[in-house]
Amino acid sequence: MPSPTSGFVRHRRSKRVHATFTAFEADLLRSLAAQLVELLHNESAVTAVDRDPLEALLDFSGPTTAPEDPVLQRLFPNAYREDPEAAGEFRRFTEGALRDGKARAAATIIDTLDEAGLPPEPSDDELTIDVELDQETALVWLRSFTDLRLALGTRLGVEEGDEDHWYSLPDEDPAAQAHHIYEWLGFLQETLVQALA
């Protein structure tokens, strides 16, 4: 499990934010982001990467029904709950681009960690990864943290006010460990918000 870190802080003389992760923490973040990218591309509505940009921009052949996966349902809720036809039309025009945007945001986390020196399979327990983000990249990370927490929270069945349930689980319970990661992501998100304020 990730240990509490200092989270994100702002450099005094610049608008950049900084965080230091253990190799385990950085690898965990990379893995979570990669799983989200895979999920986003696992169903239809994904724009092919080798398509002409103008063709992709004018393509409104996205899905008209809600995704089957509960996480994707939370990431892409129906825009019009009382009007299935309008919801389908809205989804057809927007979901493909929304998926691509969320996948690109998660990929930014992966790329940033790789560029910061995270090896493909970290084995050095003493290794730390220093991440420095400009304002634009930090906002991308922030959006992706929201998606990651929503995905993990949906998988776990997290509900408002259910903290007592999670804290009552033994530490070795896999669900408790996953919830700890969920809370850690929330901590990173909160410190990033504060660093950007």
Automatic annotation (TrEMBL):
Pfam families: DUF2017. This is DUF2017 domain-containing protein. It comes from Nocardioides faecalis.
